[in-house]
Amino acid sequence: MKIGYPCINLTLPCKGDRTFRLRSYSEERLVATVRNNLDCLLDVLRFNAEHELLFFRITSDLVPFASHPVCDFDWQCHFREDLARIGAYIRNNRMRISMHPDQFTLINSLDPGVFERSVKELLYHARVLDSMGLDKSARIQIHVGGVYGDKSESIRRFSARFKALPDRVRRRLVVENDDRLYTVQDCLRVHGETGIPVLFDAFHHFLHNDGETAREAVEGSGATWAEADGLPMVDYSPRRRGAYRGGHASSLDTDDFRRFLKETEPHDFDIMLEIKDKESSALKAVEICRNDRRFSRVVNEVWAPPSPS
DNA sequence: CCCTGTCAAGTCACG
DNA sequence: CGTGACTTGACAGGG
């Protein structure tokens, strides 16, 4: 099990997700911003390595407007060495990486233009990971998309579109259950049609499910990951007490986290803590796993399949 | 320098 | 049919 947090670090002074307004786009502005973001990313990764946080989500804002028509700059070439250096650092420290394009990326959209823009956005994400020389355990997670009045048809459309995606995108894509439309069960149907691994989001599952326990959902989604895909990825946010819905709680509820770990034993996975205070909660999680012998997974050990005995 | 309206992109629920 | 939620900060223009 590796423990991580998404996109930004609140301890360090640098900001790794700097962007700017489309109106103020210029090549100089882009280069300066990407320069800043890459430098900061390496700082954050160093911080993570020092604190045994080996799972990290790289922000989609690393290269602002990378998939927008306004951007005709060859950032991959210009920043080749920086990207390669970051990738080497990730590999040397056995870090796990994910990326998560935002809600505008919809490969099952009825609108061909939306689909087209989504492919460009996915290609951008794949290029970031490719430029870093990361293997296919570095994943890009998206939701299934819209329902458009017919979920089965929309799942079929997702699957058909998926099969036609560029290989560099297809090999990294995973689907995540969302909080209103597609449950873990729905994602498993997508897996059945495409073979895509299913990323389990515990918070979304709590808000939207088909009656199965978190344990069952972890087992079902976990079985969709082949060895070359890397360990299953799980997103976890604390449920906010008293609020049925609402955003992520501001800090880790250690009791709830312990309960989740206990409930899902002995299944191993890498866990992303999507919590407002970022690395602060992730560090708490590392402490919990290290100091509590009741938990069977070993943090940051190289994973091996459970022995049959 | 401070204030504040607005920011690339989509979909669904709600009133 | 129009607006807000999703999630949230910070960019950038105007005073």
Condensed summary:
The chain is an alpha/beta fold.
Q: Tell me the span between the first and last alpha carbons.
A: 21 Å
- What low-confidence regions span 5 or more consecutive residues with pLDDT below 50? none
Structural class: alpha/beta
Helix content: 40-55%
Beta-strand content estimate: 5-15%
CATH architecture: Alpha-Beta Barrel
Morphology: globular
Rg to the nearest angstrom?
19 Å
> How many domain units?
1
Q: How many strand elements?
A: 8
Protein described:
The protein has one domain (3-301): Divalent-metal-dependent TIM barrel enzymes (TIM Barrel), CATH 3.20.20.150. Helix 10 links the parallel strand 7 (233-236) and strand 8. The longest helix is centred in the N-terminal third of the chain and has 24 residues, at 27-50. Helix 1 packs parallel to helix 3 (80-92) and helix 5 (151-163) packs across helix 7. The protein has an eight-stranded parallel barrel with strand order 1-2-3-4-5-6-7-8, surrounded by four helices. The relative contact order is 0.13. It is α/β, with parallel strands linked by helices and 309 residues long. 41% of the residues lie in helices and 10% in strands. The chain has eleven helices and eight strands. It binds a DNA duplex (15 and 15 nucleotides) through residues 15, 17-24, 65, 67-68, 70, 102-106, 109, 111, 114, 117-118, 121, 145-148, 179-181, 245, 247-248.
